[in-house]
Amino acid sequence: MIKAKKKFGQNFLIDNQIIKLIVDEIKFSETNKYLEIGPGMGALTSELQKNTKNLDLIEIDPDMIKILSAKINSTTQIFEGDVLGFSDNFFEGYNVVLGNLPYYIATEIIFRFIPINNVDILYFMVQKEVADRLVAKTGSKENSILTNLLGFNFRAEKCFDIKPESFDPSPKVTSSFIKLTRHRDYINEIRYVDYKRIIKESFKFKRKNLKNNLKGVLNLNDFENLEILPTNRAEDLSIEDFIKITKYVITNA
């Protein structure tokens, strides 16, 4: 009997109702190429194959690959390895990436797809806490580095929550199914690398205000010119506010 391996962060989805909800959320197209990360024993894979012939898999666990090999059809390929170890070129053939991500590297995997411009949509199961930060509103305590870095590149939507009992073994936390849709609203305004630097400085110390976190970057006159209160915390600002700050800093460097 195959058991989940803790070192891979495996929690296998066993709830058929949730699998149906996931498949219903995905807008399948004959022109899209799909990549599933960490399919495990293939519960979701089997349903995906009913809706597309353009599906490939990345699986790190050799034991899972043996099981998957007996389930996949002739058009599906399995690539063995850690998704973080694949080159940018590998992902160039895919438009949609989906999967049940290990909690301990979920955000790292999500960030991996920021520079892969041809990947338009990400569908992932993640810890609810991560999902809440991805969809956080300006001014909320969940508004974070994650919210603003991903928001520069993707529009985030939390589709639904998933109870622990839907997995085997059951995690200790609730999960969420999320959809990230790439947009290109800001890429012609500023460089992501410059924006990223301002975001990291702004959120450097969660309890401190912008005047303290951006000390050495902006002075009080700069805040006045920007029409942004120096007493605000980073969570009080929108992506557009951070873009305005980034442009100002670059122009006045």
From TrEMBL:
Gene3D superfamilies recorded: Ribosomal RNA adenine dimethylase-like, domain 2, Vaccinia Virus protein VP39
Q: Which CDD domains is this protein grouped with?
A: AdoMet_MTases (cd02440)
MF terms (GO), sorted A to Z: 16S rRNA (adenine(1518)-N(6)/adenine(1519)-N(6))-dimethyltransferase activity; RNA binding
Q: What is its EC number?
A: 2.1.1.182
Which EC class, in a word? transferase
Q: Where in the cell is it found?
A: Cytoplasm
Q: Which UniProt keywords apply?
A: Cytoplasm, Methyltransferase, RNA-binding, rRNA processing, S-adenosyl-L-methionine, Transferase
- Gene Ontology annotations for the cellular component aspect, listed alphabetically: cytosol
Listed InterPro entries: KsgA/Erm (IPR001737), rRNA_Ade_diMease-like_C (IPR023165), rRNA_Ade_methylase_Trfase_N (IPR020598), rRNA_adenine_dimethylase (IPR011530), SAM-dependent_MTases_sf (IPR029063)
First-listed, main subcellular location of the protein, grouped into a coarse class: cytoplasm
The residue ranges of the Ribosomal RNA adenine methylase transferase N-terminal domain are: 18-184
Taken from the record, one Pfam family name reads RrnaAD
The task this protein performs is described as:
Specifically dimethylates two adjacent adenosines (A1518 and A1519) in the loop of a conserved hairpin near the 3'-end of 16S rRNA in the 30S particle. May play a critical role in biogenesis of 30S subunits.
Cited HAMAP family: 16SrRNA_methyltr_A (MF_00607)
Q: What family does this belong to?
A: Belongs to the class I-like SAM-binding methyltransferase superfamily. rRNA adenine N(6)-methyltransferase family. RsmA subfamily.
Protein name, as recorded: Ribosomal RNA small subunit methyltransferase A
Origin species, per record, is beta proteobacterium KB13
Gene it is expressed from: rsmA
